[in-house]
Structure formats: structure tokens, C-alpha cells
Amino acid sequence: MLKDDILKALLEAGDYCSGQALCERFHVTRTAVWKAVARLRDEGYTIEARQNRGYRLQNTEYLLSQASLDEAFAAQNFLKRWVFLQQTDSTNLEVKRAAAAGDWGPTLFVAEEQTAGRGRRGRNWSSPPGSGIWMSLLLRPKLRPERASVLTLVTALAVTDGIREATGLEAAIKWPNDVVVKGKKVAGILTEMSTDMDRIEFVVIGIGINVNTESFPEEIQSVATSLAIEQGKRAARTPIIAAIWKHFAAYERLFEATGSFAALKERYETLLANRNREVRVLDPDGEYTGTAIGITEEGELLVLRDDQSLTAVRSGEVSVRGIYGYV
Amino acid sequence: MLKDDILKALLEAGDYCSGQALCERFHVTRTAVWKAVARLRDEGYTIEARQNRGYRLQNTEYLLSQASLDEAFAAQNFLKRWVFLQQTDSTNLEVKRAAAAGDWGPTLFVAEEQTAGRGRRGRNWSSPPGSGIWMSLLLRPKLRPERASVLTLVTALAVTDGIREATGLEAAIKWPNDVVVKGKKVAGILTEMSTDMDRIEFVVIGIGINVNTESFPEEIQSVATSLAIEQGKRAARTPIIAAIWKHFAAYERLFEATGSFAALKERYETLLANRNREVRVLDPDGEYTGTAIGITEEGELLVLRDDQSLTAVRSGEVSVRGIYGYV
């Protein structure tokens, strides 16, 4: 579409582009260029127009685009393909469709907006344009299916370290699927898998991060936050995305090479927000409290119960909540 | 399509239908009826045409059709929907597409022919028209994902009991995915699952049965057979299908109600072809031999190794072969 071509031209230029030059480059009329610019503004891009100089994209560091991803991933060799989408139903569904069409991956889908984003247990995941990172990876790991849930832990490590590197915020992991800053959730992970029991067909690793959300509804303000709220200024999204997949590639390589989470356990426990915290375990067979003391090499949370017995809590069977808040 | 309408009319009549009556019923010309009959003959149906009497379908008991499934499933209350397809790429793929489109199931797809049928580990599964049962079930069980592989055992039980009931042959289970008659494979099961680690999104249970296959390539004659070869005559497929899902519904209900395979363990071990046989376990960590003595409640094969140690063998990690043949 013309608007995408013009956006790419403005991004590449990084400065003013004359309307005449755009007309000539794309073989269209001035009116067509003007209309495309208007549509880009509707999508949230700030485009300055100046007599005799032309159009200029502002605040480009806050934009996501195919061009910004191309630049971020040019030097890495983990992702085979990356796709930016202005809008989609859900990036996890994008991955499933790509897998069904034979995509071998690793392939990353990043969307500016999801219209049907989902979190764990089928919950809705709000994914408005401009304020977040909504992305999913297609991976075909050589893992036994029963080991796949460890990929959620690997991802939590990568998201936490990526956010730390790109923003300096002290992000931490709330076992097993969330990343928190100062005890409030900034990111969630939804790992899905298609398997024939013997082997994994493919895995979908979905990541949602509240980046520039300015405020949250009052009823969730105590448990949810954004990177912008925590650092007091807007954050550029592309460097966060790049940092996350850099860490993911390294952690995943280590996990595959050793066939075990043991090599990542120490780093994980260092970043574990629940560690040495009192937790309430909402086991369907009976709720209990205790202290989270670490994780096992299978990725279970080790909880020292108040009766001094030690329980390895498996993701999926239970919910874990902090006694004094979310973590 | 007209040919499907005419097939249904001939099936329902069970006797001669005059060409004139078919023309009037479907508001088409004699030529159109004649062409539809020719197409049905191309698909393998034997349709007799007699002057002054009309068309009659022969050997109807050997045919699969939507009408034959409708009749077979009219009185049951397990399947919510069943779909007959003359040809498809793969019934497992049909299920995945139906699930993606929101089908809640239990829904059964039965195909006369698969053009891209698959077995375990991505192997091709030959599925020519006329000779087999190629079918897949969409199920959304309330099971923890790590328990889903037990559904393969439940299915093996149902296929074995269904074949026994409908044909009288002494079918048996080759743990975990195959059904054998006199030590040779007649059926295979391919269970697939889509999960978000916490819960199962849906399960696909694919079943392939060699029913009226007349002969097998020489290189697999020692390990593969068909129901027709074993009983010395062609078998009607619809009663086998009906019997399998009758048994499946009963076993699955028991499994869900008790949350455990314990209630099915005894029947499974009775039907287990490997039981008390010497087996070779092709474990990636080292091959070993022993005697299969039964299964655990988690569905693992219990093998008494030659060094007298007892190992619970998990499906997916290993292959099990008989020492003196396939079982």
C-alpha cells in the first residue's frame, strides 16, 4: 500500500521528504500522497508538513515498523524472518497460521495492535496501538513435549533481561508467566504448543508488554503498570524487542545445548520476584501458604510450606499469589 | 452436488429408483442424472441400471456415506456432529481447521480417501479410497495437558474392542499406538494436541484402519495386514466405526469420571499383545531387552529388564519392538 511505502521512505530519510519527490518515486499524484499521509496520522504517526520542505516523521524512535525491525535484526542470526503488522487479530494466531502453511521458523510477528489478544486461561489481553509490544515467535524446538513448558521460563528470563538492558528498570520474574517492575505486572507470556505426543510440531511464544500505557483502570492500578509509568518517560520499543530476542537466543541455545534448565537456574532465581516471599498457593486440592525458595530444574516453584514440608509446584495446576500483593 | 443427492436417494431407497423419479425430485434432466451416476461409478460405487426399473446401488453394506453415518450415530449421544468426506488431505487437518473455526466437538470426520494422510513421526500413511477407515475426532477434554497421552490408550482400547465386536477377530493392542491381528498391524492411532501448557485447547484423535486392503507390498507383508485378509472376506466399515465410538464414549466417560486410567487398566492389559512378550526397547540412551509385564496408571509400559530391574517406559521417548517380530 502507498501509505506503507511512504512511511518506509520517511523512516529511511529521517528528515524532510518533498511531496514532489514522493510523487515521482511512487508514480502517484500529490493528492494520493496527501491522503496517504492523512491515513498515517490517523494511525498515530506524527508527521510534520512544511511549505517548501515537505513531510517529516517525528518521534521516530517511538515507532514500530518493518524498517525498524529490519534494522534491529540485521546483525543477528537467530530469527529467520520477522514480520511487522499494523493490526492483527492476535500474533499467536499469526504464528499458528504461518506454522500451518509450513513456515519453519524461528519467525517473529510483531503487531502495533491486536484486536483479539489473549492471555492465559483464555482471558482477554488489551492490546491497543502505540502503547505496547505485542509479539509472538514461531519455534520448532527439538524437545520432548513434556519439557516444552520450560520455554516459558526461558522466555521470562529473556523478557526480564531485555527490559533491564533497554530501560535500566529492575524488572523481575513472577513465576511462571509474568514480568514485574516494583511488584506490578508489566509483561505476560503465553506459550502454546502443537504436538503429536511424541514430538513437538511447533511452539508459539506470545509476549505482551505494557510499554507506554499512561494509566490503568483504578481496579488494576495496584497490580499493573507500564515501563513508561515506572521510568517516568516514554520508552522506545524497538530496542526492547531487539534486546529480548538477543537474550532469548542466548538462553535458548544454552538450554538446547545442555538439554537442561540447570545452566539457567541461578540467573532465574536471581531474577525471581517471588523468591523468599510468602506465597499463597491456590491448589485445587486445597489452598496453602509458604515461602517460595527457588525453582527446580524442571521449572517447578519450590515452596517451603508453613508445616516445613517442601513442595514442588507445577505451573498449570495452581495459581501463586503474594500474601501482601501481586508478588 | 447432484451426485451426492442421488447417492443419498439410492442409499435411502435400498432398491431401484426410476430415472424419471430422480429427475422430478431434483428438478434436473435425464442427462444430468445419467452424468451424476457416471461420476458415482468413477468414485467406485457399483450402480446397476435396468430398463423400466431405474438405478440401484449394489453392495451398499460396504459403502461409507453421510447417510450411513447418520444412521449409525442416530441413537448415540456422544458425538455432536459427524461429517463424511469423499476426499480430503487428512482428517487430522480437517479437525484442526474445524477447531480453529470454533467447532466445540466432539466432532468426527470420516474420509473415503486421504491424499496426505500422516502417521506418527510425520510418516506417510497410505489412505486409498474404498479399502480403509480414515477418521479423526475433535475433542476438548478437561484434562491436564500432561495427561493427554492417556487418550491414545483409551482410543487403542476402543478400536480394539470395536474391531472385535464388529468382526469377531481377536484384535489386540500393540502399546501404545497400534492395533494388531495375529501380530500384524491393522490400525494406527495418531493423537495430536494444541495446548497453552495450563489447559488443553483441543485434541485430535486420528485413526487409520486397513479394512478391505487385498494385499500389501512384499516388504511389509510380515508386519501389516487388513481385516479382510484376516477374516477371508470383505468387511462392512460403518458397523466398525459405530462400534469404535460406542466403546470410546464409554471408556472416555469412565476415564473422565474417575480422572484416572486405573478403571481401564485391567481391560487394557487383557488386550495387550505385548504382554508377557520379550521386547526390545530402543531407548535413545541405550537399547535394552526385557519382558513387557503390563502398564502403569499413567499409561507407561512396564518392562522387566533382563537384569531384573523394572522400568516404566514412556511413549514418545522410545520405540518398542518384539524380539520375534512386530509385537
UniProtKB/TrEMBL annotation, chains A, B:
Domain of life: Bacteria
Gene Ontology molecular function terms on file: ATP binding; biotin--[biotin carboxyl-carrier protein] ligase activity; DNA binding; transferase activity
Enzyme class: ligase
Gene3D superfamilies attached to this UniProt entry: 2.30.30.100, Bira Bifunctional Protein, Domain 2, Winged helix-like DNA-binding domain superfamily/Winged helix DNA-binding domain
Binding site for biotin: 90-92, 114, 118-120, 185
A GO cellular-component term linked to this record: cytoplasm
Segment forming the signal sequence: none
Reaction(s) the record says it catalyses: biotin + L-lysyl-[protein] + ATP = N(6)-biotinyl-L-lysyl-[protein] + AMP + diphosphate + H(+)
Domain BPL/LPL catalytic, residue spans: 66-256
CDD domains named among the record's database cross-references: BPL
Keyword list, A-Z: ATP-binding, Biotin, DNA-binding, Ligase, Nucleotide-binding, Repressor, Transcription, Transcription regulation
EC code(s) of this entry: 6.3.4.15
InterPro entries the record matches: aa-tRNA-synth_II/BPL/LPL, Bifunct_BirA, Biotin_CoA_COase_ligase, BPL_C, BPL_LPL_catalytic, HTH_11, Transcriptional_repressor_C, WH-like_DNA-bd_sf
Record PANTHER family: BIOTIN PROTEIN LIGASE, BIOTIN--PROTEIN LIGASE
Similarity comment: Belongs to the biotin--protein ligase family.
HAMAP family: Bifunct_BirA (MF_00978)
Protein name: Bifunctional ligase/repressor BirA
Organism: Stomatobaculum longum
